[in-house]
């Protein structure tokens, strides 16, 4: 038990070290990129604050690489001073070694899921909203042209969103099955209920009656099955910047309204499966850092170099798998799980050959 705790603590120290190094590198890159956008209203200090707030979401995506490098740093350091040799000769079996690396990894996996649901997406979205308000004022942060949604023969365009997440400048177009325009709506604002129903305010409506459009003015008009309130801040961000529950619910909404939902489903499953990839990476790092195939004459730097190469190969390979999966229409959960499955299989194979 003492040895398991010792190995686990060393793993955690290695992860924190890898996290600190990558945070410094990617944080600096983010800040340099934002400096190009500095204006009188968007200062360098604001750019630095933005970089700090969006950095955690980027690091979540790098979690498998951080776990790989951190594990190699921790275990290769122990191997360098013959600590792993001493532990292995003390009767500490492979099953105990797996338990020692698995327990802290499970804690890390749980922490990743919690952050993807409750922390990093909210930080990213708040940072994006603040940045756009600082650069373009406090009126609207939806890009030019607005955002569109469709529900059967109904098309909705949203042009503005207030600081309090209240939609404004809303247009609705309704067609029949022959694509004949039946109705148009213009609303200055809307109130959103908990069941996706919107109550349009200050409505101007044109309705086709006997071949002619008639104008109507309404103080309020209820329209069902539009965006939920918690989905509105995510409309202008990528799927990897949404928290898991919103991402899944929004994908289901798109499917139910017969809109393309594959991009959001891919993002949801990739995020959901990513902690399992972290577990596979830690397993793979164990035989690599313990000199599984080349004896115990490899240097610490050599092991770390292998880890960097494996991290790059993993990142590129995962992107290729995800792109091929989307292009060829493969099963979405399977595509998301493939990097973890392949890495886990390679780790098990190397673990069996490891000298212990």
Give a brief description:
By secondary structure, the protein is of the alpha+beta class. Helices cover 59% and strands 16% of the residues.
Written description of the protein model:
By secondary structure, the chain is an alpha+beta fold. The chain has two domains: 2-131 and 263-353, no CATH class; 142-228, no CATH class. Helices cover 59% and strands 16% of the residues. The protein is built from ten helices and six strands; from the N terminus they run ααααααββββββαααα. It has helices at 2-35, 44-61, 63-80, 83-89, 94-118, 120-136, 244-256, 262-289, 300-328, 332-353, and strands spanning 147-151, 154-161, 167-175, 181-192, 198-209, 212-223. A six-stranded antiparallel sheet has the order 1-2-3-4-5-6, with no helix packed on it. Helix 1 runs parallel beside helix 5 (94-118) and helix 3 packs parallel to helix 8 (262-289). The protein is elongated and about 90 Å long. The two termini are 18 Å apart. The model is unreliable at 292-296 (pLDDT under 50).
